[in-house]
Amino acid sequence: MGTIAITGASGFVGRHLRTAVEADGHEVRGLSVRSGVSAEDVSGASAVVHLAGEPVSGRWNDAKRERILASRRDGTRAVVDAIAAAAERPSVLVCASAVGYYGDRKEERLTETSGPGDGFLSTVCEAWEEEARRAGDHGVRVVSLRFGIILARDAEAFRRLKTPAQLGLGGPMGTGLQWWPWVHIDDVVGIARAAVADERYQGAVNVTAPQAERQQAFARALGHALHRPAFLPAPSFALRLLLGGFAEELLGSRLVEPARATALGYAFRYPRLAAALADLTG
Questions:
Q1: 117: in domain
Q2: Residue 131, domain member (yes or no)
Q3: CB–CB of 10/55 below 8 Å?
Q4: Which end of the chain is more exposed for a tag (fewer CB within 10 A), N or C?
Q5: Is 277 domain-assigned?
Q6: Are β-strands 179-180 and 213-214 bridged in parallel, bridged antiparallel, or unpaired?
Q7: Structural domain includes residue 74
Q8: pLDDT at 45
Q9: What is the pLDDT of residues 106-164, one digit of tens each?
Q10: Who's near 159: CB < 8 A, 6+ residues apart?
Q11: Domain enclosing residue 148, as ranges
């Protein structure tokens, strides 16, 4: 078993991934992008998994947008520069990305071959993935994991959804008709592990459950799992006042399909939302 270097190993995805790969027998080398990643940090690792980045939740202002962009663009650039300078380079770089790449696409079915959309997060994801692809110039296989809405007990996004739902306030956001591409943390870890080990994984990979849900259906399912009603809506204007630009990510529609992972034979542990929510709220 080899060594896997992970940035963001103390974040919630990183913690879950670290536990899983250590159980597989790998040694984990935690890296800090803020402290600086050196060639020595990544040399000798069989894989680098880059997860670090400024959280996107919360109200967006100019300073927050700059932190979101810079942490992903500049952080990934630093990781790739370290890989390029390493005496013994890893064979693969698995880099986080997000379905924000696609922008608000209404009813369009989106796979990894779909182009980028408009909007701030689309711009961020394009820059993020472009920096990661540079590792390919140094003989390193590159995988960009486009995460959907990750459902985990310790995920901030899930806690923010769960708290109002427990109070019976988890109704639809805006019209509720927008598609939400969700995924259980176990499948995030499963696809990340596959991306490290399986050389067929290359380029963009959507990390979303096979069955996306409209936001109002998601709200009903979460209310059902918590034995609470889910009918009080959150109007679009109220979300925009509260969250600023981030509200557009909640109100936007992305019908994302995990085409690449499915084609490569990945078997989802939680392909359906009801089972995923039952696991996380039981």
A1: yes
A2: yes
A3: no
A4: C
A5: no
A6: antiparallel
A7: yes
A8: 98
A9: 999 999 999 999 999 999 999 999 999 999 999 999 999 999 999 999 988 888 788 87
A10: none
A11: 3-153+180-211+254-270
